[in-house]
Write a structure and sequence with these properties.
There is one protein chain. A hairpin with a 5-residue loop joins strand 2 (23-31) and strand 3. This protein has one domain: 3-Layer(aba) Sandwich (Rossmann fold). By secondary structure, the chain is an alpha/beta fold. The chain has helices at residues 9-19, 48-61, 78-81; strands at 2-8, 23-31, 37-43, 69-72, 86-89, 93-95, 98-100. It contains three helices and seven strands.
């Protein structure tokens, strides 16, 4: 199991470890030569960037995404949820058209 979040790695990685999860994909900030945050992002794990990171991890780890599950609480996760045959929103997505309870083209 992998925890994938747009939140900073400094928060997500220890949380994944605390939960006993295999690993995490998270946003990474640029840090200068003095160990201080620059305010710029090296990697922002959001939207399509998150999906790319998931595909790269799956390829490295020989994970079949068609046999994987994706749980989401955000519409920005649609690109990565499309990679799973079993996407599951944990919070309904509400739009001007009303609530949508499925991810991807399965609305």
């Amino acid at each position: 199991m992998w925890l994938v979040s747009a939140s900073p790695a400094e928060i997500v990685e220890p949380f994944a470890e605390l939960l006993g999860i295999t690993g995490a994909i998270a946003s990474k900030a640029n840090i200068d030569e003095h160990g201080k945050f620059t305010g710029e992002m090296k990697f922002f794990a959001q939207g399509e960037n998150k999906a790319i990171a998931i595909r790269e991890l799956a390829q490295k780890r020989d994970i079949d995404l068609n046999e994987s599950f994706a749980y989401s609480d955000s519409e920005t996760d649609i690109p990565c949820s499309r990679r799973s045959d079993t996407p599951t929103p944990s919070t309904p997505i509400v739009t001007s058209l009303g609530p949508r309870t499925r991810i991807s083209g399965r609305y």
